[in-house]
Amino acid sequence: MEVRELVYFTAVAEELHFGRAAARLGMTQPPLSRAIQQLERRLGVALLERGGRRVALTEAGAVLLRESRTVLDAASAAARRTRRAGRGDPRLVLVIKPGGDGGLLPAILDAYQTEPGALPVELVCSFGEREILLREGRADAALLHRPHHDLTGLDTQDLLTETQVLVMPSSHRLAGRTRVCLNDLAGEPLPRWPGASEGRSHGPEIHDLGQLLHLVALRRMVAVLPSSIRDQLRDDLVAVPVDDAEPTTLLLAWPEHATSPALAAFIRTAAAVAGKTTAHGG
Amino acid sequence: MEVRELVYFTAVAEELHFGRAAARLGMTQPPLSRAIQQLERRLGVALLERGGRRVALTEAGAVLLRESRTVLDAASAAARRTRRAGRGDPRLVLVIKPGGDGGLLPAILDAYQTEPGALPVELVCSFGEREILLREGRADAALLHRPHHDLTGLDTQDLLTETQVLVMPSSHRLAGRTRVCLNDLAGEPLPRWPGASEGRSHGPEIHDLGQLLHLVALRRMVAVLPSSIRDQLRDDLVAVPVDDAEPTTLLLAWPEHATSPALAAFIRTAAAVAGKTTAHGG
DNA sequence: ACAGCTTACGTGTAACGTAAAGATA
DNA sequence: TATCTTTACGTTACACGTAAGCTGT
């Protein structure tokens, strides 16, 4: 089974139309048709049901579509990681969410730089879909939150578990409370995180923390955030605990099977710093 | 990047010798050499250092070797899963260790068969490397133990956490104790699990539970096992708790991204049965 | 009759094998 | 000099495109 065949099949399976798939691939239909036939012959399985004017996936085709994506993702990640390892200039690329480091990052970076063999750390700030950068081989590690991120395919190290607080303007109807629960938020606009499933949050789409706090100050919405956000709160905002919001765990994630000693040292350092901070900080 | 290129590179990287790699691949050296050169050109990275009589991996080559294995494993698993989905005869293949089901399996199977859309369950018994069957696409789910198995690349559902007991002949010097600790076992031969790293266990290699208990009865060794093993103990053997042995968690594991409804129902059923059992059984 | 997948056929690229050359210890 | 990788060259296989054929709607 060749990568080319999987690319072809994926295109046809997604388009459910040989002509459009061929156009997308920059080729003509006949060789595409033959390639799929050959794949079916080699697998000994029908992948597509061709009706006169309707193409549909068989059960096996649906399985192969999912599996193909895994294989193709792995292949492009492999190429990217190899290229990154080959071009000199070794760095550790860490992807973070601005304001989403629980206040730990400065201490971690300082401690890591004293490690023997420490690499320069390149910080990449990104709001949405940060875990994808890891799976694509574009980054070495990421600071993520459980349960907000999908951690399949990643190894993780827990750093810090935090309760969540409601952030709102001082003039908000709930600002005087010492605690709230999720039911109190019914009808409040909540931020829409880019890339998140189109869930119930109906507020504006958010791209960075400054924007978020600004919109909260403007009474456009309120936000439920990890309590460490308090360190970065503007004077015109207040935060009160949300009793029944699930605690959030800040964690360090990296691709499975990663073996780089520099990454291992970084993980160790981060765990040590987080452990120390938790021990006397809470 | 094509699968063929990765196969070639993997062979050379493992042999560190173009001639042997070519022989292993059933081809001659020159096209192999060219294929590697082309791969290096396309990636823009040197993968191998050719000294007159010595071939070595560059750093990038080491990265690609690891990544290649991931890609190739994913590709062959994709083919196998697709074939399994294509050949009619849908079944749920569950791999277990004889005696390693914590006594839950009969109840799980009974409950599952009452589910709508339940598939026939095929049980595969295997002692070593059970998780590999999942990664290779040969099985749909497996009963494994944490921390004994490597769970990377798998999703899991915890079923049952058990303390561990020392199993020995009634005549053993420790048989009268009500509890032991790991230090008491210094010098005792312990079973060698097939596929496990060549660790400190210096006893005979074990392939099934009957053999293990037989060898224990013959005073060839003792074994530390989950306490549910007591249900299956022969009369001439005794089990006492090991105070400082890490508790073992029996769990159900399946490949990441699995989407089969039959598997989902099986997971739900297993979790429900385990929860019920734990609730009144301890 | 038309849209769309497939078969037929001719062409070019590329992968392979044999043979010869270059490089290193 | 011996061993091992690379370059050179001729052949074969395979993937692609154009054109014609077939099939449901």
Structural account:
- Chains A, B: Keywords: DNA-binding, Transcription, Transcription regulation.
- The structure is a homodimer of 282-residue chains.
- In chain A, 39% of the residues lie in helices and 20% in strands.
- The longest helix of chain A has 28 residues, at 59-86.
- A five-stranded mixed beta sheet of chain A has the order 4-3-5-10-6. A three-stranded antiparallel beta sheet of chain A has the order 8-7-9. In chain A, strands 1-2 form a two-stranded antiparallel ribbon.
- The first copy, chain A, has three domains: 3-85, Winged helix-like DNA-binding domain superfamily/Winged helix DNA-binding domain (Arc Repressor Mutant, subunit A, Orthogonal Bundle); 92-162 and 248-279, Periplasmic binding protein-like II (D-Maltodextrin-Binding Protein, domain 2, 3-Layer(aba) Sandwich); 164-241, D-Maltodextrin-Binding Protein, domain 2.
- With 282 residues, chain A is an alpha+beta fold.
- Chain A has helices at residues 3-15, 18-25, 29-43, 59-86, 105-113, 130-135, 209-217, 261-281; strands spanning 48-51, 54-57, 92-96, 121-125, 141-146, 154-162, 164-169, 223-226, 237-241, 248-255.
- Chains A and B meet through helix 1 and helix 4 of A and helix 1 and helix 4 of B.
- Chain A binds a DNA duplex (25 and 25 nucleotides) through residues 4, 17-19, 27-31, 33-35, 37, 50-55.
